[in-house]
Amino acid sequence: MSPALAEADLAPLDGAREILRRTFGHQEFRGLQADVIGEVLAGRSAMAVLPTGGGKSLCYQIPSLIRPGLGLVVSPLIALMTDQVAALIQSGVAAARLDSNIDPAEKAETWRRIEAGELDLLYVSPEGLMQPWMLERLSQTPLALIAIDEAHCVSQWGHDFRPEYRMLGRLAELFPAVPRLAVTATADARTREDIRAELHLEASREFVASFARPELILSAERKRGTKEKRVVDLVTARPDRSGVIYAGSRDGTEKLAQALRDAGVPALAYHAGLDRSLRTTRLEEFLEADAAVMVATIAFGMGVDKPDVRFVIHADPPASIEAYWQEIGRAGRDGDPAEGITLYGASDMAWALRRISERDVDEAVKQVQVRKVRQLYALLDGTGCRAAAVRRYFGEEGVKACGQCDLCSGAVETTDVTEAAQKALSAAHRLGGRTGRGRLVDHLLGKTKEPSAFEQGLSTWGIGTELSAVQWRDLTEQLIFEGLLREDPNDGRPLVGIGDADAVRQVFRGERRVAMRKPAEGYDPSTRSGRPRKKSREALAALAPGDQPLFEALRAWRSREAKAQHVPPYVIFNDRTLVEIAAARPGSRAALARLNGVGEAKLAHYGEAVLEIVGGFEG
Ligand code: ADP
Ligand code: ZN
Q1: Ligand 2 centroid to 383 CA: how many Å?
Q2: Which residue, 133, 322, 338, 344, could crosslink 186 as a Cys pair with Cβ 3.0–4.6 Å?
Q3: Biggest CA pair distance of the chain
């Protein structure tokens, strides 16, 4: 045992900080990292809920390096493991993964290293870990800890339930002496409770960080016109930046990617229907590019740890607020400003609700899922700060408005339309739920083609001339979002009827007001305030113009190095670190070592090359 480790036993957090600096090149712990690490170093199990980008992985990586034995990390996706293992190896950590993609020779070598006590971290899938022979072999191995990454996958109240995670509950009795750390970025109170129950962490401490992501600038708008055109407009207004666009279907990703390429944007499609090698190439291309746009289904997600994603656009809405925050959270991981833009519509909500009703699960589970969908659309179509709404949803208290989302910056004004709402509700009631949205609007305007005598005889016929057809359509949609109207799918030709009877009665009595958004066209940050664009420009150019050439030279070197090693560039150094190097122009190894993101291994591997490039720019 090295002297540093003996010291670590005396003052565990000093040892942890030492590793944070030497191995990972970061100066200080962030948020709750130190608390979580302290708990695990004391040999106790814990649960940690940290937002995406909050630095969850160090919470188990550092204790694995300090505590004797192998650190075991359970992770749901191979892509996630591959990335983390590559990054750890770059930092000089002995890490490996065992999954179905690893060939037998490499597997045997990994086991040899495990048994010789040479490995610090081993990444495994839940089903891989729980195979009897694997458990048997691991029971002979001293374990530093067991980390359960993406722990919300264990809960059916969560948004990403994976039945194979359920088996992990047995780890408590199989390895009673080994501390277990469950980590996740997304879990509301109920899901957290469920994770603790399933993983037998009831008696353990729970660390819940703030879900604030101040670098994210959120906006959402109702779908209008063709989706492709809107997305192309949003993307072309953000040139030379990396972004992810989520679409609801495979076909949708292909169409959008094509539309973007037609507009001159280098966009790639990614979905589970593509063959594996094509997916891998596209993923690498995206990770390695300085500015690339990936159009993907949610099959593209976890483990995509590209730090400089400047925008995430949901061309179709996410499945829940958890999914929203996780998917949007892939933007701005380097801490620089980034945008999350969501397109949504009442038909998306209807579709999501229909999917749930068709699912073969318990009634209680369906109810939870329906509530989650309603909460999501209340957030998207709401009129209060979006960031604050998300944080409240995750159980944070005393949350303040973010001041920078579309709603905070006042782009969405509302007007009281209670009277018009009463007309629409009463028309829907009189029409008896037998018409679609378009017919309802025509009825209000008295413009129905070939109206029946029955329809013309209704007191609501033509009473709505104060609003235009577009405004009535908006209002109808609004009423559906609020549950005042209900849309019945009717095999793809949806019919509108009265929704929640109590709420409708309140509107008629004037006890409940209905407010509608003004202006009707969606908020467009690129054409209105211009603020998000300016901000990200500033942050990216935290670099003095004079340092730009050095920065570019460093990037070019990093790009060559990454290609040679077949790793994404940011695992070598991220942009932040290159900016720091370009600004500080370190003249010695010691000066270079002081910069963020430069640990010992990286100093040893790349120190010379970097100093040489910097030296070339002297004078
Ligand atoms: P997540 O919580 O999403 O899994 P990661 O563990 O991948 O986040 O960390 C996100 C990024 O933050 C990584 O690039 C990591 O190097 C960086 N990071 C983690 N901890 C710190 C820290 N204490 N100081 C500076 N950067 C950190
Ligand atoms: Zn806000």
Answers
A1: 10
A2: 322
A3: 94
Q: What is the pTM of this model?
A: 0.68
Fold of 414-517: Arc Repressor Mutant, subunit A (1.10.10)
7-208 and 414-517: identical CATH topology:
no
Do 185 and 329 meet the contact criterion of CB atoms below 8 Å apart? yes
pLDDT tier for residue 492 given thresholds of 50, 70 and 90: low
β-strand partners of 146:
72, 180
Residue 28, pLDDT score: 86
Under 8 Å between Cβ of 282 and 253: no
* Helices 548-565/276-288 angle, 10° precision: 160
From the CA of 50, give the closest atom in ligand 1: 2
Domain borders along the chain are 7-208, 216-393, 414-517, 538-615
Distance CA 438, CA 472 (A): 9
Q: 143 in helix, strand or coil?
A: strand
Radius of gyration of the chain from its Cα atoms, rounded to whole angstroms: 27
Instruction: Name which residue sits closest to atom 26 of ligand 1, judged by CA.
Output: 26
Alpha-carbon distance of 320 to 360, in angstroms, equals: 19
Report the candidate in 131, 2, 160, 138 with the shortest Cα–Cα distance to residue 66: 2
Among protein residues, the one with the nearest Cα to ligand 1's atom 20 is 55
3-class secondary structure, 296: strand
Residues facing residue 343 across a β-bridge: 221
Name the residue at shortest CA distance from atom 18 of ligand 1. Answer: 55
Confidence of residue 163 (pLDDT cuts 50, 70, 90): confident
Alpha helices in 336-417 (DSSP H): 346-358, 363-381, 386-393
For ligand 1, which residues put their CB under 6 angstroms from it? 26, 29-30, 33, 50, 52-58, 185, 305, 307, 333
Q: What pLDDT digit, counting tens, does each position of 525-581 carry?
A: 333 333 333 333 344 446 777 888 898 899 889 988 888 888 878 888 888 888 889
At residue 607, what is the residue type? G
Candidates 24, 37, 123, 576: which one to mutate for ligand 1, based on the most atoms within 8 Å of Cβ? 24
Give the C-alpha distances (Å, rounded to integers) separating 36 from 341, 497, 542.
33, 51, 32
Taken as a whole, the chain contains a residue count of 619
Q: Which sign, positive or negative, has the C-alpha torsion 585, 588, 589, 594? A: negative
pLDDT digits over 389-431, tens only?
A: 898 888 777 888 899 998 888 766 778 899 999 999 999 999 9
- Alpha carbon distance 53, 121 (integer Å): 21
Q: How would CATH label the architecture of 7-208? A: 3-Layer(aba) Sandwich (3.40)
Q: How far is C-alpha 344 from the geometric centre of its chain's CA atoms?
A: 17
| Cα–Cα separations (whole angstroms), residue 244 to 278, 314, 329, 340 | 18, 8, 11, 10
Ligand nearest to the CA of 308: 1
| Annotation: CATH topology of 216-393 | Rossmann fold (3.40.50)
Helix (H) or strand (E) holding 310: strand 309-314
